[in-house]
C-alpha cells in the first residue's frame, strides 16, 4: 500500500475506512459544513466533495479531516490541489450518466496520466465504471495500479431514481444488497487481481457494510443517506452505526469457502448479464 497522506495510510491499513461523500454536484455550503461537522464528531476517515475551490478553502479552515475532491476536469483538480485538497478522485460519474456520457478505458487511463503529471505526490483514487465488462474492469484496475494510482473505488449500477429507492429501502438489507450487487461483485473480483486498497460505494447501509469488507474492501463510501438527515446528531448517529458494522465484521467468523462459493454464483449470473 502506497499512500503519502499519513492519516489516510493509517485508516486504510486498519481497513476501517469510511468516506463521506457530500456530492459531486452539491455546492450547498451550509449542508456541506453540517456534514463536515458531523464527520468530525464521528469515525469518518475523509470527506469527498465537489471540485470547488471555495468549498475546499472553507472546509480546510476548520476541518482536520483529509479532503478529497472529485472531478474529471484537470483544471478544477489543479486549482483545488493548489488550495489544499489532500486527495484527488476521478469518479462519482452519476452526473455524467444522467447526461448519457459513459467513459471508456482509453479515456480514463489518459486522464489519469494527465492528472498525475501535475498533482505530484498527492494521492489519487479512480472509480472503476460499473458498465465495464468484468474482464475490462480487471484490466483497467491493473493498468491503474501500474500507473501508481493509490486507491480504487467500485460503484453500483446507476438508475435515475436511485436516491429515492435507497431512501425507501434503506432499512432492508436484502434490497440494499440488490442495489449494491454490482459494486460488491466488482470489489470481490478486482481485489483478487490488485494489491491496492478498494473502496466499495453505492447504496451500502449499516446492515450491509460488513459484506463489502468480507469481499475485499478496505472501506466504504456513503453519501446519499447522510444528505437526507436533517440534523448533525442524526448524521453522527448514522455514521457511527456504519462504523460499528465495520468493527463487528472483524469479530464475525466468516468462511472464505462460503464467500468463494457465493461469489462464484454471483459471478456466473453477472457474467451472463455483462457479456
TrEMBL record:
Would I find Transport among this entry's keywords? no
> What family classification does the UniProt entry report for this protein?
Belongs to the ycf23 family.
Biological source species: Thaumatella adunca
Q: Give the SUPFAM superfamilies listed for this entry.
A: Aldolase
Gene Ontology CC: one annotated term: plastid
**Chief location of this protein within or outside the cell:** plastid
| Listed InterPro entries | Uncharacterised_Ycf23 (IPR007570)
Which key words are in the record? Chloroplast, Plastid
Q: Where in the cell is it found?
A: Plastid
Report what the protein is called.
Answer: Uncharacterized protein ycf23
Amino acid at each position: 500500500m502506497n499512500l503519502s497522506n499519513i492519516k489516510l495510510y493509517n485508516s486504510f491499513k486498519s481497513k476501517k475506512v469510511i468516506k463521506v461523500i457530500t456530492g459531486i454536484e452539491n455546492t450547498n455550503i451550509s449542508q456541506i459544513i453540517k456534514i463536515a461537522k458531523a464527520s468530525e464528531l464521528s469515525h469518518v476517515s475523509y470527506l469527498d466533495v465537489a471540485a470547488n475551490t471555495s468549498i475546499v478553502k472553507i472546509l480546510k479552515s476548520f476541518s482536520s479531516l483529509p479532503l478529497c475532491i472529485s472531478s474529471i476536469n484537470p483544471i478544477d483538480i489543479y486549482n483545488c490541489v493548489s488550495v489544499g485538497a489532500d486527495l484527488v478522485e476521478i469518479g462519482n460519474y452519476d452526473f455524467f450518466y444522467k447526461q448519457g456520457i459513459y467513459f471508456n478505458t482509453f479515456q480514463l487511463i489518459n486522464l489519469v496520466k494527465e492528472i498525475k503529471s501535475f498533482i505530484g505526490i498527492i494521492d489519487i483514487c479512480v472509480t472503476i465504471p460499473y458498465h465495464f465488462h468484468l474482464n475490462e474492469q480487471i484490466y483497467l484496475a491493473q493498468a491503474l495500479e501500474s500507473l501508481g494510482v493509490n486507491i480504487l473505488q467500485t460503484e453500483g449500477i446507476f438508475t435515475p431514481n436511485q436516491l429515492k429507492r435507497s431512501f425507501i429501502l434503506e432499512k432492508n438489507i436484502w434490497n440494499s444488497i440488490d442495489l449494491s450487487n454490482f459494486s460488491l461483485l466488482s470489489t470481490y473480483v478486482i481485489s483478487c487481481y490488485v494489491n491496492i486498497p478498494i473502496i466499495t460505494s453505492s447504496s451500502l447501509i449499516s446492515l450491509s457494510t460488513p459484506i463489502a469488507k468480507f469481499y475485499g474492501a478496505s472501506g466504504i463510501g456513503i453519501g446519499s443517506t447522510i444528505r437526507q438527515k436533517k440534523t448533525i446528531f442524526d448524521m453522527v448517529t448514522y455514521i457511527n452505526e456504519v462504523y460499528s458494522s465495520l468493527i463487528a465484521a472483524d469479530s464475525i467468523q466468516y468462511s472464505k469457502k462460503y464467500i468463494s462459493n457465493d461469489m462464484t454464483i454471483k459471478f456466473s449470473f453477472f457474467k451472463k448479464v455483462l457479456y
